[in-house]
Amino acid sequence: xxxxxxxxxxxxxxxxxxxxxxxxxxxxxxxxxxxxxxxxxxxxxxxxxxxxxxxxxxxxxxxxxxxxxxxxxxxxxxxxxxxxxxxxxxxxxxxxxxxxxxxxxxxxxxxxxxxxxxxxxxxxxxxxxxxxxxxxxxxxxxxxxxxxxxxxxxxxxxxxxxxxxxxxxxxxxxxxxxxxxxxxxxxxxxxxxxxxxxxxxxxxxxxxxxxxxxxxxxxxxxxxxxxxxxxxxxxxxxx
Length: 239
Known about the structure:
Layout: H1 2-15, E1 25-27, E2 33-34, E3 48-50, H2 53-58, H3 68-71, H4 74-77, H5 102-110, E4 116-117, E5 125-131, E6 138-141, E7 145-149, H6 153-157, H7 166-173, E8 179-183, H8 184-190, H9 204-217, H10 224-237
Antiparallel strand pairs: 1-2, 1-3, 4-5, 5-6, 7-8
């Protein structure tokens, strides 16, 4: 019975009908964590309640952009000592606030046909027509797709991104030039490897050229051996 009433209380907090303490952090259905200092705090009526910003962020939430630097945990402001996905933001960002996050935007931008969304209110892309840059195969179901970071976040972290601001890392993680829809299995196989350790089955020259372009664009610092590998590989592509 005690567990039953605990469940009811949890449901009440989710829909925002329980009394709210002054320091309650409100997490919206879109994953934004609103502390009392947020301009949208009082207007947020439907939410999941958290006792702290850290707890909300740990649940895959993210802060409003205006508060990201002020409320981000100190370990992220100064930069963690090893790569953490959260240092590049929490999940896919909706930069322009149109309900379509970076994953959806990448799927929209690369589909050769009109995509279909889950519902009019749900901006998740469910079908379209994508040609994988890793294999050349056609994919029509978005559930079979991972959005690959051409330059993996961990790879970038170890070559200069650890010195960037949180905002700069978030922009990098959501830059459309760095996002490719590819097969789930191949993206998992690639992991955080650079081109000298992993190459796709097809389109290798285009892949390495884009990887190298992003390295230059963001002034990342590959090792001397990695830089030499890039040059040799791309020189051979031009022959």
